[in-house]
Please model this.
Amino acid sequence: MEIVETRSFTKQLKAYLADEEYRKLQAFLTDDPEAGDVIAGTGGLRKVRWSDRQRGKGKRGGLRVIYCYFREDLQLYLMTLYDKDEADDLTVEQRRFLRAALTQEKLARKAARAKRKR
Model:
């Protein structure tokens, strides 16, 4: 399974997860890519809870990782992450933005597949 990070995710990652914790998150998601709950109104994004050991918080009060699992490509597309202290949930505006970004990604993948078939 391949893991792809958006620039936004990579930028935020350093503030939240040490390398070892990030490796654990990657292993968890590759073992069960559908572990996260589907977020309504986002076009298929998922949210998984992850403990925030740097701040001494478990899954319930820790991090939220937003991602998409592209089953046909065997790829995890990590979009963003945030601490629950920052927000309980994504705002309507954030959901719209993430949905639009995901839609663009899906269209790009569809175009790439069509190009390969020619």
Summary: The chain has a mean pLDDT of 91. The chain has three helices and five strands.
